[in-house]
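Input chain follows. Return structure tokens only.
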Amino acid sequence: MPKTALLSLKGEKIKDIKLDDKVWGVKPNDQVIYEHINLFMANKRQGTHSVKNRGEVSGGGRKPWRQKGTGNARQGSIRAPQFTGGGIVFGPSKNRNYTKKMNRKERRLALKSALSYKAKSNDVIVLDKIDVKTNKTKDMLKLLEDLKSLDNTLMVVTELTDNLILSTRNIKKVKLVLANEVNTYDVLWAEKLIVTEDAVKYIEEVLK
């Protein structure tokens, strides 16, 4: 069972806590992680891209020239695909759906694999609580500096407060989520994972 230190907001060690092997110590499955990331990115696509075919482009209501006698090939409309400004053939349609599906066991395995990678590389920082007194960005930056988390950071809590939201929202390298919103993509995006002790218990209870 992997162990990690429980820290205060100042980065001082309070005690050692044990992380559940079934969540933080599984053998990572890279294939499932890949498939889940692929699913996550695909499901974010809106699929609203679209082009107009020759029936939707405005204009071109009459023949550009008469059928015979001009020496040119016969044409029915200047909005045919071969003309500049004409309709598009086989272009993307707004009816396209990029949504993918994955069963729950695989999604959970992907998340546990990502969490296990973080635990193995000692990139998980567990705090007894995140109780910030102000909503100032500089105070949050000082907190992250004390915790030695200066790169991409995922903060996981069980309760959002106004001060916590306001102090993190202008920091590009910090993403704040609730424990029930943790996903594989965010975990892998982060260099450091800052989790409250309550959030650790919630994640373990859900994923075990």
